[in-house]
């Protein structure tokens, strides 16, 4: 049974037992470390209550992770933001301002600064991360072709400030690991690639010391449940979404 909280706990244990040190993305950029290092990046697209469960699980194991939350209705939840920050995790903005502004760059940058200020009421955010907005015509990263996030006190963005020839990026976009056909924009340029069928296989590779020393593992908490109705609903809905994404990827190429 994949994408359950029990499976996620097993993934954390495998990383710990294999000797990986856990760093927030902010720490990863600020204090480069030798040896095995993993950044757990969580994109809170929806279901913030799932993110809180993951944050609590990590905290119980003494692990710090990086959480990026959208500002849209149904996702933005100040009580949950406060609780995740109180557990010692990094919290910042999962930005999609070019989409919100319908392609107006000037408005988008104003929105970005406003939304970042909202996040900073709870955490002194120094990194941000793009939301892919797969059904949008606008790629939110293109905002930085005209503006510079460093002007807002941001030291890094995962799609721009990591050398992926030295860091392996693993994402559960599409409810699979590095499934390119199910990802419209959640991709990185680099020499390291990994395709695994399921989380159990990923855990086996970690246990057998088959992965590089530097990892960024991106998860979307809305996919991870204890088995039950929520898990079944996500399973069915994601299969439908993947078919749509696959068509979009084919169209874009």
TrEMBL record:
Spell out the SUPFAM superfamilies in the cross-references.
Glycoside hydrolase/deacetylase
Q: Which GO terms describe its biological process?
A: carbohydrate metabolic process
Name assigned to this protein: Polysaccharide deacetylase
